[in-house]
3D-(3,5/4)-trihydroxycyclohexane-1,2-dione acylhydrolase (Decyclizing) (Rhizobium aquaticum), 620 residues
Amino acid sequence: MAKTIRLTMAQAVVKFLSSQMTVIDGVKQPIFGGCWAIFGHGNVAGIGEALYQARNGFPTYRAHNEQSMAHSAIAYAKANFRRRFMACTTSIGPGALNMVTAAGVAHVNRLPVLFLPGDVFANRAPDPVLQQIEAFGDGTVSASDAFRPVSRYFDRITRPEQIIVALRRAMQVLTDPADCGPVTLSLCQDVQAEAFDYPENFFEERVWTTNRRIRPDENELANAIALISAAKKPVIVAGGGVLYSLASDELTAFADRHGIPVVVTQAGKSAIDERHPLALGSVGVTGTSAANAIAEDADLVIGIGTRFQDFTTGSWALFKNEDLKVLSINVAPIDGGKHGAEPLIADAREALTLISEKLGDWRAPTTLADKADLAKATWAKSVDRMFSPDFVTGTGLPSDAQVIGAVTRSIDLEKSMVLCAAGGLPGELHKLWPATKPGSYHMEYGFSCMGYEIAGGLGAKMARPELDIVVMVGDGSYMMANSEIATSVMIGRKITVVVLDNRGYGCINRLQMATGGANFNNLLDDAYHVVPSNIDFRAHAEAMGAVAVKVSTVAELEQALAASKSHDRTSVIVIDTDPLTTTGDGGHWWDVAVPEVSPRAEVNKAHEAYKKALAFQRLG
């Protein structure tokens, strides 16, 4: 008869999570980096007590906001290339629902995180319990059901023995390269406290493989070889899957051997050293002129680990060659077949190695590399111009590009990570940041979630303590979520935050203007107010324990960045920036529907331009 151990359900959950391991660079270590927790009714008595008992081996971190702590957990997984991840627990009701947005971030970006929200009483005796959502037509519904569409696996635990199956399923999803994403186990609060005689072998140490190498089907591989061999103007679009496959060296070797230029998505940036002659930088809506020039004329787009988001494809209007074919190398079939692509369902590293072996000495025509060289040199001049402190903006305030240039000059790019998420900065960083090492560029642009930045910077620092983490964030995102500055100080994880204050949502204001709209409700001065906004970000950050300073010029910014290196805790540097100036070179049209009818001439003019642009959109 199997030996058992009597534990509460919550104790069993924590004990199981503590025994899950992985191996990274030959070193075995826990696969969970710990658990973020904000306690309330619904988790403080059950899982809170269980975490306390395990605190010496399974760390618990206290945050200030449930969404933010989940962002930290997600960034931790991303910075670890999905090889390690974290759990997050909350109370029922608002605490749980605060994490749903973060679950969307993890789902879209294919990132592993375990959500453990509290839930209503399974026995329903105190029904309705405090914070319970009552669905009048369905007695089984609770607030946690909101996690269903943004979870790769969802389960509600209504009996203590159900976690035996549920936790094993959860681990399969969290470690599966194709199905990877958020898992939600909603823990009924009374069941957390119930005891059960669990099999001892349920808690035995298990080592998980997080980089399962899926080898390609022979027929799909042969088709891929034929497509590449016939191409005259191929281009590689490298996505995040290259990084998660740890295939950067193989990508570089493949490009070298076969003479194929490489362009990168937001998730794929840093998959190749951008100093490489064939690395043309970002592609698409926020693409460099070099990358987009090659992509527009390509007769074969080789997507590797990308889901071909609309920013990557210019809303499928970027690729203008009438003979275009798309080859999509991806572990996920849903991504491999998008827009009629020829799929090669395989791990990026395995696919690149096998394709290169089969291609042998085949190379793309040398005219392609020559064109790439010229395009890259032209783009480099654009970068120098935009980075120059002498560049004059319309308001005289520094541009985002000038701030980015100052940061690149002030840090050690080999020992740093830049992190951002939403607004205008992602576009400028995608174009301009000189990524050199895998993981040195960390962008959440799958969901483009405002408020990810500071919490994400904290999670990245927890994952990569040896790196200097530089968070670049606009004033709009800062106001959305900034509380984890205090957490970073409290737990001794130093990050550097550069706040670019353009007085509002500058990116959407520019989009509003580009689609014929009037300046309305985006910049602070164009919004309804009785008292003009005058937010002191320096004082605010200082009040949370950071070392904070406000600077006026690019030169002062560089001095502040240099001084921040000697600080013993999180540093925040604030600078006022121009809300309108962006890098005009590069870029591409993006499909944002413009009203067909308007009393305003500006909107009607924008709609005519929109109709013309739609003619280039590929629907196949």
